[in-house]
Design a protein that fits this description.
Blueprint: H1 4-16, H2 43-56, H3 70-80, H4 98-110, E1 116-118, H5 122-130, E2 136-139, E3 154-158, H6 166-174, E4 185-189, E5 193-197, H7 198-201, E6 209-213
């Protein structure tokens, strides 16, 4: 390895004699940065941890009688990420069931003083989650059971992508050229407990609406 003094003097001589100095040696590539979802202290990391804890919480596992706890999993995730809870809780402090959450979130988003806003597209929902911003996806179930009672809806939180393009990759695998709106990736805690596409987490017969806090 040439010493620094020789390199300095050689550079002067090159300039005086009009010689072109050799190009600098390329620097070796640095180590790749870990994704934000794996970097403690980032909003993406905090949201991902809250979602992971919800999926692994034994209290949210479905019961043998078919009872599921998507509302509790979502509300605990929103609470952990310091999101507004007013539209997600009843006056007694209990968490809304999904059908009621769908109605209350929609009403709150219509108010000028509301704490939530509607997200325009599934793609925007994914982009917000990729920034570590909590997004709730909710679907009303308008069906009735054998006793005439309204069936429960479903709700999830949108999952930050661990690697860019993950959601679009899943979209290409699950959808045809004529049907592409399967974004985003969601943290699903219900009858199934997994990270998956919204296309498989929700029923296809009813629309899904997404909401995010107005203030961050």
């Amino acid at each position: 390895m040439p010493d620094e003094k020789h390199g300095f003097i050689g550079g002067i001589l090159d300039r005086v004699m009009g010689r072109t100095p050799p190009p600098p040696r390329p620097q070796p590539p640095g180590l790749p940065r870990p994704p934000a979802t794996a970097t403690p202290g980032t909003p993406q990391y905090e949201l991902t941890r809250a979602q992971d804890d919800a999926r692994s919480n034994p209290a949210f596992k479905p019961k043998e009688d078919g009872t599921t706890f998507c509302n509790r999993a979502v509300c605990e995730t929103v609470k952990r990420t310091k999101g507004p809870m007013g539209a997600l809780t009843y006056p007694n402090g209990e968490y809304d069931v999904a059908n009621d959450a769908a109605r209350y979130l929609a009403e709150d988003a219509m108010l000028p003083s509301g704490h939530w806003r509607a997200v325009d597209t599934p793609r925007e929902a994914q982009e917000l989650a990729n920034q570590g911003i909590v997004v709730v996806g909710v679907q009303t179930n308008r069906g009735r059971d054998e006793r005439g009672r309204q069936r429960h809806g479903h709700m999830v939180t949108v999952r930050p992508e661990a690697s860019p393009g993950l959601a679009e990759s899943v979209e290409r695998k699950l959808s045809s050229a004529m049907e592409r709106q399967v974004l985003p990736i969601v943290n699903n805690v219900g009858a199934a407990i997994s990270v998956e596409s919204a296309a498989t987490a929700f029923e296809k017969s009813q629309p899904v609406h997404y909401y995010t806090p107005r203030k961050r």
